Amino acid sequence: TPPARATPPGGQPSPPLREEHVTCVQSILDEFLQAYGSLIPVSADEVVEKLEDIFQQEFSTPQRRGSVQQLLQSYQRLPGSALLRGFRVSYKRHVLTMDDLQTLYGPNWLNDQVMNMYGDLVMDAVPDKVHFFNSFFYDKLRTRGYEGVQRWTKNVDIFGKELLLIPIHLEVHWSLVAVDVGRRTITYFDSQRTLNRRCPKHICRYLQAEADKKERPDFREGWRGAFKMNVARQNNDSDCGAFVLQYCKFLALGRPFSFTQQDMPHLRRLMYKELCHCQLAL
């Protein structure tokens, strides 16, 4: 049922949503559901924008936008209409299920499948410039040493890249090591601003061993570690993975970090869409 008409102070009542508008909203939401498997990445503003395109009239007034928001929320609550259980995203060797994509919702922790596919999208956005290491790489290096990971780059010349991105997953926290190959710098990024001094040292030893293995003596020495302490900081226990993926994207594109904790709900929705489209939004 369309909501009751509300009169703005000192003005004419803004027309409520008509039945044809409500029907159109439902069909827009159905389209989004087919594209994304859920309505997790959809905002009321996107639905409003589509309505304005279709009907060529304003839907962004507080009353009409509120009505759209209510329809979106009630649609999400309908049994069976808010999720396509069998939805899959396939890209190269990655397959994301709804369980994986749902880690981008609200305060959930991102999982390895999401991290690794997004890392591939980052690499493909800047071909040949960046190498993103699988999220299991660091733990294997830490526990097994160079021997445990030496085959991981047998088909990759990491010293021919400009930037190496190494996600670090320790227990329940994600952070990032970024290696600027040309400048020989190993920089640790952590949205909780903790100092993990062992991590850059492990990466430095790895780079030296890789230089020996690949017979690249020019990359044996001169590596310097640094901690980036003035990065955007999370103020919860759940957004570390989202911060790491944004660090990766912005570093790969050569952009200064322009996001904060307040941007994370929007950026989580954006990353969900990027994964479904198998392409970064640039």
UniProtKB/TrEMBL annotation:
**Classification via SUPFAM superfamilies:** Cysteine proteinases
Cited InterPro entries: Papain-like_cys_pep_sf, Peptidase_C48_C, SENP3_5_cons_dom
Q: Has keyword Magnesium?
A: no
| Listed GO CC annotations | nucleus
Provide the alphabetized UniProt keywords. Answer: Hydrolase, Protease, Thiol protease, Ubl conjugation pathway
What Pfam families does the entry give? Answer: Peptidase_C48, SENP3_5_N
Concerning PROSITE patterns, the annotation shows: ULP_PROTEASE
Which part of the chain is the Ubiquitin-like protease family profile domain? 94-251
Name of the protein this chain belongs to: Sentrin-specific protease 3
A biological process (GO) of this protein is: protein desumoylation
Q: Which GO terms describe its molecular function?
A: deSUMOylase activity
